[in-house]
Design a protein that fits this description.
The chain has 476 residues and is of the alpha+beta class. Helix content is 60%, strand content 9%. It has helices spanning 14-81, 92-103, 195-277, 281-296, 306-315, 328-331, 339-346, 348-363, 367-378, 399-414, 425-434, 442-450, 452-462, 465-475, and strands at 111-116, 121-123, 142-145, 148-153, 163-168, 174-182, 187-194. The strands form two sheets. A five-stranded antiparallel beta sheet has the order 2-1-7-6-5. A two-stranded antiparallel ribbon has the order 3-4. A hairpin with a 2-residue loop joins strand 3 (142-145) and strand 4. Helix 4 (281-296) runs antiparallel to helix 13, helix 5 crosses helix 9 and helix 8 runs antiparallel to helix 9 (367-378). The protein is rod-shaped and about 160 Å long.
Amino acid sequence: MVQTRSRRQQKPLAIGTASIRTRAARKRLILLALGFQSLTLGAAWCITVGGTRHQVGVAVADKMLEQNAQTADSVEKVITGMKLQRFVYGDDTWMKLQNIVDQFRMAGNGYLSIISSTGAILCHPDIRTNPSLREITIAGIPLRHAGQPTSLTIGQITPGTAMTGEVSFGPGNDHYVAVKHIPELDIKLLVHQPERSMASFSAAALQGTMLAAGVMGLIALGTTTWVSAKLMRRHDQQLEAVNTGLEAEVSWRVDQSMRTSHALITGLAKLADYRDTDTGSHLDRIAAYSVLLAQTLQDRWPFVTEVWKEHLQLASTMHDIGKVGINDAILLKPGKFTPEERRIMERHADIGADTLAEVRRDMGNDEMMDMCIDVARHHHERWDGKGYPAQLAGEDIPHSARIVALADVYDALTSKRVYKEAMHHDKVVEMLREGCGTQFDPDVVAAFLEVEAEFDAIRARLQPAEVQLSKLAQAA
């Protein structure tokens, strides 16, 4: 029985490759999802921090204005408690007020100034070093609340509760101020807090919050990534287990199908062979000879692979399947054929190839069936072009058919038939050597001569006992 190697060993199943592609595509989707999640978290962080910064800024500004107003009320009490009289720049009263301004301390860069009822600066932390500040009048500067101007300017503020708001002393020089009118001295107190200081204070207050939000975002992203990776890995393991079982099932079914089809085809070939030789070992010998020649030719013919040899092993058994269409009177005739009988006998090559072509038409493209058809149709072609049925010559003859041609002739000459006795191995070797370049491919003959002793061993092992006894009798 001709044995064939399991197709499971030839190449991985497509399902395994598809599984790998699926896992790779899934990983790409996970990475895209994580990237999108990172962008979403980053945008949310920026929006949240931006909104928080605005809210904190508003709250700090309100708190700053409230503190300024309280400070203005406190300073007013100090000044009125001193029972001061109206003063002019440089006198003792001015000196006392300037000392209060100089000694005033407030969080950040806050400071105190005193202006006249007309808005001229009377006391200021920098007035001793910069007397020109006395020439500046700020009575017309308007107060703003939440960025919106009011109907009051600094000069229009009257005695009563301290007025607060935002004022601008020039580009980039905005202050949060509280203004308090002291009618006894006809002056106004201004408690300043530069907006830059407030912005720094807000940034400092937000720094911890921003850092905490960033850390929490990174933790959330890292946790999500870790959980996603774990879930993906678990899913892949479950999918891999399912695929492994599915691959094994598919491989087993493919194996069973291939073995069944090979067994059926080989059985038909043996049935045809029994009509011709009364023995089923002919096909086993042809397959063994053909594979041995293919192995020897691998250095000369690089396309000869393990799969190619497996195909040849089965295809070689198909070479004479067309003999089922030849009448027994001709097929088993013990004498020489007439020209008409020979013409009919030679039709077995086309009958076998056409039959196999019908099988291939139903099963679709298949490399093994292609080789079976080549061998069945062309194993009687000759290197010099004088063979049949197509009179192909040289390189036009399929490589598989060249190998089977020599294997078939060797087996026919060394086997007993109804019309002849078996010939001795050594004599057949010489006949095949003489056919080099005329009947047979020189490469195939060279390969045969390298392993002719192994041919003889295969023949001795697989040939029927009666043939062996017949040869011994002839030798005696």
